[in-house]
Amino acid sequence: MTDKIILVVTFIAFMTGCKASKTNTIAESNDPIATEVWKPVPIKVTPGAFNHLAPSDAIILYNGSDLNEWQQLDGREVTWISSDNELTVKSKSGDIRTKQSFGDCQLHIEWKSPNIIEGEGQNRGNSGIFFQDRYEVQVLDNFDNITYPNGQASAIYKQSIPLVNACKQPGAWQTYDIIYKAPVFDKSGKKVSSAFVTVMHNGVLTQNHVEIKGTTEYIGYPKNIAHGAAPIRLQDHNSAVGYRNIWIRKL
Question: What domain range includes position 149?
Fold first, then answer.
């Protein structure tokens, strides 16, 4: 390379560097417009007015009477008891699940354990909320009831212990506000990204963006078989747990 060519290349590099430096200096110190992002514009959503009412873009899964969003696991009409704005587990009738399928979502659900205390450990006020029909957030009366911590209320069942025990007394209405991020599988069926969940129990953070290792298993370890969107499922665990004010937002 001749001295003349080297000189030209050096000059161009110098000028490019000067221009970039000047642009960066302007963006950082003199031009607020450089860091303004105008698109996309968030969709307007009207929040619920009070008492955990659903926002305007939510899907109402249970409003106190309508069970059209639910079915038994075999597709039959729901046999749980719906009265007085409450959906109560009918023991030994089986789990119920939504007719719609969901992936990433925000779920609000209110529940209460029976007023009359019966049993202990896992046999007291037991139910569960399953995301994508596979991953359980535990429902249990743990106000004054000892069990294994990764199986108590707001645990990711047998996977993640709650940060604290935020349970109210038996018979009191309790709330879960849950942010759920679905797992991702590639075309070969291999999991490339885990599910994650955040749980607020009665307004208290109990699961902070926790990784879900795989399916909820009573015996054995979590499994990771490829799947897509799937229903929300509520568990019949032979206890008359009540539910109300259930709504969900797709994310």
Answer: 59-250
100, 117, 181, 225 from 185: Cα distances, Å: 21, 43, 13, 9
DSSP string, 135-189: EEEEE---SS----GGGSTT-BTTTB--SS--PPPTTS-EEEEEEEE--EE-TTS
Return the closest-CA partner of residue 191 out of 222, 234, 169, 166: 222
In a domain, 189, yes or no: yes
Q: Indicate if 102 and 31 belong to the same structural domain.
A: no
Q: Name the domain count of the chain.
A: 2
Examine the domain organization and report whether 234 and 135 are in the same domain. Answer: yes
pTM for the full predicted model:
0.86
pLDDT at site 195: 98
Q: Is residue 46, in this structure, part of any structural domain at all?
A: no
Let me know whether 156 and 235 are in one domain: yes
Strand (E) or helix (H) holding 18 = helix 3-29
The number of beta carbons lying within 10 Å of the beta carbon of residue 103 is 18
What kind and span of H or E run contains 201?
strand 195-201
135 and 234 both lie in a single domain: yes
State whether the Cα torsion 235-197-193-148 is positive or negative: negative
Quote the CA–CA distance of 134 and 215 in Å, as a whole number: 5
**Spacing of C-alpha 36 from chain mean position:** 31
Number of continuous H segments (helices) and E segments (strands) in the chain: 1, 15
Tracing tokens 């569960």 back to the chain, one arrives at: 128
Residue 197's domain is classified under what CATH number?
Answer: 2.60.120.560
Same structural domain, 130 and 68: yes
Residues 67-121: tens digit of each pLDDT = 999 999 999 999 999 999 999 999 999 999 999 999 999 999 999 999 999 999 9
